Amino acid sequence: MGPATSDFLAALRTGCEACHVSRTRVLVAVSGGADSVSLLLGLWLLRDELQITLQAAHLNHQLRGADSAADAAWVEGFCRQKSIPCHIGSESMTASPQLAKLGLEGTARLVRRRFLQRVASEQACSGIAVAHTADDQAETILHHILRGTGLAGLRGMHADEVMATATTDTNTDTDTGSIPHEGFPAIPLIRPLLQEERQLLVRFLDEQGQSYRTDATNTDTTLTRNRIRHELLPLLAREFNPQIKQALLRLGQQAQEVYADEAALAEGLLRESLLEASPDHCRLKCGPLRGQPPQRIRECFVLLWRQLAWPRRQMGFADWQRLVDVVESNHPTITLPGKITAQRREDLLMLTRAE
Known about the structure:
This protein has two domains: about 5-225, 3-Layer(aba) Sandwich (Rossmann fold); about 265-355, Uridine Diphospho-n-acetylenolpyruvylglucosamine Reductase, domain 3 (2-Layer Sandwich). About 50% of the residues lie in helices and about 15% in strands. It has helices at about 5-20, 35-45, 45-50, 65-80, 100-120, 135-145, 150-155, 200-210, 225-240, 245-275, 295-310, 315-325; strands at about 25-30, 50-60, 85-90, 125-130, 160, 190, 275-280, 280-285, 335, 340-345, 350-355. The strands form two sheets. It has a six-stranded mixed β-sheet, sandwiched between helices. Strands 7-8-11-10-9 form a five-stranded antiparallel β-sheet.
């Protein structure tokens, strides 16, 4: 075993331990690129040690014509060589009704998550493994900063989370919540390589003599994520801070530590305040909320929106703050995105969602 293979498998083993991947059935999302191929190959090499049963899934987004079909065929052939059951799906992103609302990147992410959730449920998998790396994490945190984010978005991605798949909520800043879709139970998304840099994965594949596919759209800088990866991060490293990636990763870790404490307090506050909740109506006591730090009240409402599966994508900081103002009696009635009305009646806050 060469040094790159040894280092990679040690890192993957540690990541699997952190995500509790052992003695279970795992679905691996495989695009055919270096990251996902290294994840599947590494798990295959560790399958006996971890006592895991592997399944693979690939979604053809139909964005690159013959190249997309070739990627699907390559993944299917690779899995056949390793005797790994492979599930191939195909769906046109440009024909999706979500395209106008979410854009191409958002639509692809939503459709892919639905596909993976469905396959994992059908195959009785307890987790869906994806090959996000530390490089992806730094890009995600920077992307959130550019869009405008709170503490939740600064955390970036999580090694183990439940993914939202409903059309009503695709806000990646806070998508650690669970929203089952089309009758399928929510199955955790696991990222055992989230602490590792992409270069380690490539060295491992090179040492193994393992080929992989290269998606030409990964260099298309009209897409936001690619522009961040190929233009903005190199510019920041060159002109401002050579260690920008490490700085972003530290920021994400610190945000996660602070947010965990704040979220726990907000969850307790919600339990104390909530009197009644249904998909279109809920009542809360304002007494426990008043006098709390504004960020805790805002997080309390974020948790409530998630619990009710109410749309959060259009809810910005100003909207969450308006709810704080209603609690403090500064505004008796407000209307929020998603046709939601908040009304203060003495010490009660009434939230109603119109059909």
